[in-house]
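Write out structure tokens for Phosphoenolpyruvate carboxykinase (ATP).
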Amino acid sequence: MEPLYPITKTISLKHYGIKDATIRYQLSPDELQEETVQKGQGKITKSGTLAVNTGEFTGRSPMDRFIVKDEITSDKVWWGNINIPFEPDAFDALYDKVTAYLSEKEIFVRDSYACADPDYKLNIRVINEYPWSNMFAYNMFLRPTEEELKDFDPEWTVINAPGFMADADIDGTRQHNFAILNFTKKIALIGGTGYTGEIKKGIFSALNFILPVYKDTLPMHCSANVGEKGDTAIFFGLSGTGKTTLSTDPNRKLIGDDEHGWTKENTIFNFEGGCYAKVIDLSAEKEPEIYGAIKKGAILENVIIDNNGEVDYADTSITQNTRVSYPIYHIDNIQESSIGKNPKNIFFLTADAFGVMPPISKLTPSQAAYHFISGYTAKVAGTEAGVVEPTPSFSACFGAPFMPLHPAKYAEMLIKKMKDTGVNVWLVNTGWTGGPYGVGTRIKLKYTRAMIQAVLNGDLGLYSYDNYHIHSVFGVAQPRECPGVPTSVLSPRATWNNDEEYYKTAFKLTNAFRENFKKFESYANEEIRRGGPQRYAF
């Protein structure tokens, strides 16, 4: 629910090293939208939605994400090209530069929090150079009441300065942009990029360390919803696999669309207070809830608008990663507490551009662990002429760029929770059928929705030979029938009409799985290793 305004509290930023700034504290979304337009940093669409251009960066820059290596992190973080170490002294020097840059400027400050479960609440202060970045923080984090703000004590601080450019040779960064987590000082320092996703993913990454290390809680890059009978469904998936779309269901209440915790008390809670959805090819017919959420208070990023204020969602001339952020109350059918209980089904979503994985299959616990650690989807070719070859993409735990610990740590927690609760795990291919990208077609959204609904209704039943077929390459159990889905669609091989090419492509993908899994083999037990494809081509 939207909190009341105005906010009467005033604050100082001097203890952050930000001096003589004009502080605009806890402005309402309307005020921030007006400030953005007045500064020439955004436009208003026909629906009243604010539209901004994030500048040079229209997505995250994973090679410019760092974690300060110190006493807290040195022995726990899985260091490498995902979690890149940053020296404490270098952080302090860069921090001083950023705060000096923000001094004497007009600064937008917001107090908010993450984690809807009161037992896991994390208070956050967000300090922004731009008003629309602060409006994004309003949309995406949980919103305290004015009563809660009176004694608000921020535990973590996000300092966001898109206009500050680092000097890589001096500052220890790779280039002029950076996103750095400091777990000792509890600061996320972001500069040189206007992409708002860095703000939310900074806090997500912090929680992916804090919750498992200190709170015995599994953090998950997933969406979640709850049915009328109180059964919670969890949707894991990388960007573009349908995580937000499939969890936004008119028949089920949305808990959240991207980041959740699974507690030792067996509850699921949303980290956030909003949604950050891709809007490429968005339509009212395909995704009515998301389409309807795009109204005053939402922020569209990097979309093309005509002279009448109409948005062309098919136009990707700026980026394919066009986005919208909106507070969760823009969705009508939400779980007011943002907490669910009784997890019954987990869906692993993958957009298989090779077109060889079943559109839905049931996983054993060992297969679930294997696919969770693998985190497979596929990237399709860009717009270059003649380039049609898909590329396998693996992101451990369906969120490797945000996971500071070794993936096996999260997988072990998931396996335990699966066994303790008896939850069913399903692998859902939202990608291609009838051939790979460039030959086949994307599986119809209505079929994927029907498969999800069949699982939630219990229509697919328990595993048996009569009801399921074991895939000869991947070893997963694919249902023979599903209400609302043509039988031919359920068998990926049958959709190809070319067995030789199908198996050749399927074996090619299993080899990619095996090659990717090599880096986890020393951490994975025999049960997990048995969960992978057992047949492969030489």
